[in-house]
Specification:
30% helix; 383 residues; five-stranded mixed beta barrel; single chain; alpha+beta; Rossmann fold; five-stranded mixed sheet; P-loop_NTPase; 29% strand; globular; 3 domains
């Protein structure tokens, strides 16, 4: 078992099963001994030697721990490829492209050929850059076939996934392209989060749906922050740098009135979704996006609350942040490598973490500006 210090707890990785548990010092010691085959009596004696506890209490705790261990919950660090795509289509002919387009990310040019009409227009709404700057530009090709009512997505002769409508196919193309950025760098951690940056300093905002992270990211972008991504943010484990994947923000209907004053074009954009969930793609301008990796110096969990008159700032415990990141869909290459998990734990230990509950975007911006300034002045990464 590998274990890494997280504040006054340990993150424990069972390398045989890939299970991850966050435990206090006593429980971490018990788990290590149990995985080595120790019984309750040996565990109890070891606990007495290490901690201020009597043998009777240690024996009771050890028996209860071993009894609960098989059914105890563990955190699941998902695989980068944990989503199961539909790859049943076999390529047996040349594509009969009805439309073509080129999409760009920093360092990547994506050439799309599609038999599905309307797909390229939607992809052009989702991707914001007009070119890919720099000398190290990779070219990726995606072919989208029409097969009955299905639309297989093919890259380098291999079926990557299958879409079922124009919008569904576009979203799956986006997922495949975003994954390319993560997979092109060794030791990458993928967060389900939004991210923005100011200068050389980035802010990660992991949060559940409906918390207001997209609205906040859009507003901060309007106020001069550079945009990285609104859903899937890759981080290089060794350096704690976030990789930009600046595709359009998917703005839900509830945020349209809030953002209308800052983005007048929003009301004229195409609506997607159904009656229950409508959204529009808001494209950042070329000068509003981050184009190079940037160090992540601050973690904010935003929570919009209409009744909140002033911004409530809560300093989050490292344990709750780590568990929240994993449960929200953090993913890594499988099997989980100890050094990747150790880097993630080290970063969580180091980065300032806050929950901000707010109703006013201008008020929360002022708080974020101040927190970022404090974080940068005290930052020292030792990953």
């Amino acid at each position: 078992m590998k274990k890494f210090s997280l504040a006054d707890h340990y993150v424990c990785l069972d390398e045989d099963t890939g299970q991850v548990r966050v435990l206090n010092q006593v429980a971490a010691s018990m788990l290590s001994l149990a995985l080595d085959g120790a019984g309750a009596e040996l565990i109890a004696c070891s606990i007495v030697d290490q901690f201020d506890v009597d043998i009777e209490t240690a024996m009771i705790d050890s028996v209860q721990f071993l009894a609960a261990l098989p059914s105890a919950d563990s955190l699941i660090v998902k695989a980068t490829e944990s989503y199961l795509p539909d790859v049943g289509f076999t390529v047996s002919r040349e594509i009969d492209a009805q439309e073509r387009t080129c999409l760009y990310l920093p360092g990547v040019r994506i050439e799309v050929a599609s038999e599905l009409c309307g797909l390229c227009d939607l992809l052009n709404e989702m991707f914001t850059l007009e070119s890919s700057e720099g000398s190290c530009v990779r070219t990726v090709k995606l072919d989208v076939y029409s097969s009955g009512r299905n639309f297989p997505i093919v890259g380098e002769g291999e079926t990557l996934d299958t879409g079922y409508t124009v919008a569904d196919t576009a979203i799956k193309c986006l997922r495949e392209i975003s994954g390319l950025v993560a997979r092109s760098h060794a030791g990458t951690i993928m967060f389900h989060a939004s991210a923005v940056a100011r200068g050389n300093d980035a802010i990660l905002m992991p949060a559940h749906g409906g918390s207001g992270k997209t609205t906040l990211a859009a507003y901060l972008m309007h106020r001069g922050y550079a945009f990285l991504n609104d859903d899937a943010v890759p981080m290089l484990a060794k350096t704690a740098e976030l990789l930009p994947v600046p595709v359009s923000l998917s703005v839900k209907a509830g945020s349209w009135p809030v953002l209308a004053n800052y983005f007048p074009q929003l009301s004229h954009l195409t609506r997607y979704g159904n009656e229950e969930r409508q959204f529009r793609y808001l494209s950042p301008r070329d000068g509003q996006v981050q184009k190079s990796p940037v160090s992540c110096r601050l973690l904010i969990v935003p929570e919009y609350c209409e009744a909140q008159k002033t911004v409530a700032v809560e300093c989050l415990s490292k344990v709750s942040v780590f568990e929240g990141i994993i449960k929200s869909g953090c993913s890594v290459e499988q099997p989980v490598q100890p050094e990747i998990l150790e880097s993630l734990v080290s970063w969580v230990n180091m980065v300032p973490c806050y929950k901000l509950t707010y109703s006013s975007l201008s008020q929360v911006e002022a708080v974020i500006d101040d927190l970022l300034l404090q974080s940068v002045s005290s930052w020292e990464w030792c990953g």
